[in-house]
User: What shape does this take?
Amino acid sequence: MDQGSEKNQKTETMDPAKMYELWLKAATNFWENLARMPAGENDMFKFFSQHQKGSSYQAQQAWERGAQIAASFIAMLSEPENLETLFKATDTVPEFFMKISRQVWEGCLETHKTWAESAVRIGKHEKAYNFDDIDHETFNTIRKIYEKEFQRYFYIPKIGLTRYSQERASTAMDKYNVFQTALSEFIYMFYVPLEKSMVVMQEKVKEMVEKGEIKENYKEYYSIWIKILEEHYSVLLQSPEYTEVMDRTIKALATYRQTRDELTYDLLKNLPIPTNREMDELYREFYELKKKVRELSVKVENQK
Amino acid sequence: MSQAKIPVDSILRYLAESTEEAKEKSQKASEVLLGDLDTDISQTPYEIVYQEDRVRLKYYKPEKIKHKIPLLVVYALINRETMLDLQPGRSVVKNFLENGIEVYMIDWGYPGRKDQFITIGDHINLYMNDMVEFIRKKHDISKINLMGICMGGTFSVIYAALYPEKIKNMVTTVTPTNFDTDQGLLHVWMKNTSAEQMGPVYGNMPADIMNLGFLLLNPARLIIDKYIGFIQNMDNKTFVENFVRMEKWIFDSPDVPAATFKQFIEDFYKKNLLIKNKLIIDGKRVDLKKITMPLLNFYGKYDHLVPPEACNLLPKKVGSKDVEDICLDTGHIGIYVSSKCQQAFAPKISQWLKEREDEM
Assistant: This one.
């Protein structure tokens, strides 16, 4: 056999349409033969006849119907017009997968692009609020970045059977982050007077050294420092800025506790124990009933 | 040769002496801390004569009764009434007993989650009124003497305005009635924050959070200096005992029922309704002009929690003509526990009550 005819033969055998046609014929013959097979010659029917005597006839009928449906479906596929459509579609399979892959890939790219844009915006916020003035603006900046760029991811609409549980979990996570930010700012505020009082103290000591007024008793330095610290705290605690931060921390703590409790109720309701919410409802009923009983007792006493 | 600016030699000498002193001090301190310490508070014997839910009425009987009318003491819901009987030498209760006064004192107990719906009205119209009724019946008298402390004083003022026919004389001590002041940090914070939100989310307002708030009023002194002072005096047994007694009292704090806390912040701190005669308790308006019984009003000049401005308006607003205002040179707690106030406070009250006992 020359190389050319071998190549032609190879191309012919590799033709998927012909291969498919051959397979269809084989499959149709198989199912037709199987359907025509008498029940007694079929091992499966033998088994069912032995173990489910009453239903052997029904099983045989069902078997024959199933085999006939399979044979008809395969025969239908082997009709020329159906085969043509099928092969056209087969040609488009790679294209179809390419299209899906491209779309998925583009979606991923788009998401990454959005995240990258968020990161770029974080840089812009930094410039806008200036981290040099760290005492006043750092926490403000962190909070604004979080609110504008991250918080919304926790509020992507939830779907499906567990959507409410998902919603409660992500809300609790968001409120926890908000609380942590507020708490960090609150704690930082208490650190500032410590730092500033140390600076003032250093200047004071330097002045004393220059004047030759060094104290031998180190306790006197402590007394000077604690007075400076007290004054710094006094100024801080009376400032509207402090009250604002305190208020924000209280609100954040209250909201976080509420959302955390909501999530906890979700988890607890599957356990055989009463939740605080259920107990609170009972407590309210007790409270109202006690008041009512008391009121009625007073009325009865007065009528005696 | 010029003299050195820094006397290094004397500083080093002082340090060496201090090190020696610290070594001795720490040895003595360990003996004190590991030895027997008398740190019990509220040692004066009493009897529980009435109880409603968790609220109890303590009765302190003097050896010799010299006053015809007993005194009911109403403490605040924050911290406990044990402050009036902190230690034998500094006990307001003991002082009253020595003066022959029968003392009744409300112990509000420790509110639990089930108490979260209890309002200010419930404290006044239910618990306080039932206890006043109990004392009136027990002693077969129509009027009793009433003494209020801090928030308990505010409750007493409301009670006296709602039930003037049951009160013979009233003593208010460090009692806030005017909340529209910026003198105290607490007033500024309560007016400008959402503290009232805390109660409902915790069930009740947690005492630990309130205590943290009190410490933050002066962190340099209350969180640092106070404990430095303790370390410096750890070798002094009496100092340690008194210090531990005070620590026991300060941090023995019940939670405040959420509904009461919320109402106190909103109607008192934020709206200042009491002094304006606009406060409504269980549907009834609290009119301070109805307080016609004699009034003795004590407060501390250096009180950082309830500043003088929060206390000194009351005598001008009540209907009584027999009013006395006393400002002592001390702070919020000093009135009751400082040695210098032991003579100016409880004996003065005893004498003031005695003078008005037979008046009608």
In short: The interface with chain A takes residues 5-7, 10-11, 14-15, 18, 113-114, 116-118, 126, 185, 188-189, 192-195, 197-198, 201-203, 216-221, 224-225, 228 of chain B (CB under 8 Å). The two ends of chain B are 87 Å apart (CA to CA). Chain B has a mean pLDDT of 93. The domain at 47-355 of chain B is CATH 3.40.50.1820 (Rossmann fold).
